[in-house]
Amino acid sequence: MGPAARLAALLAVLAFRAGDPAEVAARGDTFSALTSVARALAPERRLLGLLRRYLRGEEARLRDLTRFYHKVLSLHEDSATPVSNPLLAFTLIKRLQSDWKNVVHSLEASENIRALKDGYERVEQDLPAFEDLEGAARALMRLQDVYMLNVKGLARGVFQRVTGSAVTDLYSPRRLFSLTGDDCFQVGKVAYDMGDYYHAIPWLEEAVSLFRGSYGEWKTEDEASLEDALDHLAFAYFQAGNVLCALNLSREFLLYSPDNKRVARNVLKYEKLLAESPNQAVAETVMQRPNVPHLQTRDTYEGLCQTLGSQPTHYRIPSLYCSYETSSSPYLLLQPVRKEVIHLEPYVVLYHDFVSDAEAQTIRGLAEPWLQRSVVASGEKQLPVEYRISKSAWLKDTVDPVLVTLDHRIAALTGLDVQPPYAEYLQVVNYGIGGHYEPHFDHATSPSSPLYRMNSGNRVATFMIYLSSVEAGGATAFIYGNFSVPVVKNAALFWWNLHRSGEGDGDTLHAACPVLWPTSGYTSMDRNSADPAARDLKTKVLAERSWRSPLAFQRSQKSKTRISGTIPGNFAAECCW
């Protein structure tokens, strides 16, 4: 199912799920959908309120301690204060026997911190889990890879691509937000714990650099220190084969923590290795980026995300044109759709302003309470995977009249029956931090696919609607077609997944590029129609479509797609935001 660029994206394929919306929204990963990330602001606001009350209590306590301090100090500074004064003598003895004990053992400080801790424990269940921190860190590494971002630039809040001596600004935020040494350390440690030293080293290097610059400063919120960063970076370099760097960093570590016996043993080990193999001291280590998903098309995919591929301009190819489309449907005569033919093989069309801002907002609002982590088929199971990071919901058209209107518009434009069981429900998908969907087909490529076992038919076409825009990234890349389509708010992208013979079109391999910078997230909406009929009936339907070219099918409504109550396979409609 598919498609598109989207960090905060909603795939609107209409299916309703049972259960309490609040419980459904609570499940899944916070980092995988921008709406979930935005909801995390609420508990932090509650924590800010708790901290504000704690600070006020502590300020009052410290004011009182300051008062006591100055009261006693004034007595000691007045050399004329006679101890012979029985009143002063009494208060001196009272202070030393009682007042100082009350000050030192005051419960006010512990009561203040206890209130803060109790409040935190009440909010804790609404906070992101450690898995979210790992997912968010991997998302930064994904953006770093796909868009060739410079880690030093990211740490300064700048999104720059560095290739050799060339520096390209990919996006310039209105407000720069820099990372701390502890922030960079946490990203590097996630990679380090996975044994991914290719990513760990630049992030840990930046952490070391930032910690060095602020050494001696104490920050309550930091979990790591310069020593932690040096320790991890040294071992990462050793694992990567750079023994000399590991030795130098370990020696620096011992300057700050000379009693650490483990690191001292490491120094002896590194010195011995270099003595036995002097060439290691001058050898330059070249680290290979891990290809975790084992993508054969990774370079093409990432290249298309960074540029618009080889997408031709319209004036060079007359077959690529813009027009007002009615599909000979009375429904569209008074309000034709603005059509732009993007590509011929595969045949991909973009319909501009297919939904209004109000409709897009309604769809997002309907889907948001039901969002769950997106899954893919893995044998008999549906599992969340690293190569698809998003949350999705399914909506029936009975949920709201806007969805009924949308169905009518899609059917009038495409000639496809978008009602179940001939079509899937509308799926709405919201993409999170670095949200993406690596190269995939929307149609089934194996007879063992659940689509066949459910007798639902293969997916004939995909209709994807962008419910919001993005500032950078998020294109839909067609890998073998070698072109990509940037996100166009409220537009719909349409393509055929199957050839006229019913065989899958291999050129429709596509991917949702990671969203580098969303506006408020964006949504794409997918619509798929299904054929629940038996195999022989399905063949008849496919045969009917086989004499129709995709372009002719777009322009003609004379031949209906339904035969004996079926349509050619399955039709998918998707919304993202």
TrEMBL record:
InterPro entries listed in its UniProt record: Oxoglu/Fe-dep_dioxygenase_dom, P4H_N, P4HA-like, Pro_4_hyd_alph, Pro_4_hyd_alph_FE2OG_OXY, TPR-like_helical_dom_sf, TPR_P4H
Give one Pfam hit by family name: TPR_P4H
The EC code for this enzyme is 1.14.11.2
UniProt cofactor(s): L-ascorbate
- Principal location listed in the UniProt entry: endoplasmic reticulum
Where is the secretion signal located?
Answer: 1-21
Note whether Nucleotidyltransferase occurs among the keywords. Answer: no
UniProt keyword annotations, A-Z: Dioxygenase, Endoplasmic reticulum, Glycoprotein, Iron, Metal-binding, Oxidoreductase, Signal, TPR repeat, Vitamin C
Location in the cell reads:
Endoplasmic reticulum lumen
Domain (Fe2OG dioxygenase): residue spans on this chain? 422-538
**Similarity comment: family membership:** Belongs to the P4HA family.
> Per its UniProt record, what PANTHER family does this chain match?
PROLYL 4-HYDROXYLASE ALPHA SUBUNIT, PROLYL 4-HYDROXYLASE SUBUNIT ALPHA-3
What does the UniProt record say this protein does? Answer: Catalyzes the post-translational formation of 4-hydroxyproline in -Xaa-Pro-Gly- sequences in collagens and other proteins.
Name the UniProt record assigns to this protein = procollagen-proline 4-dioxygenase
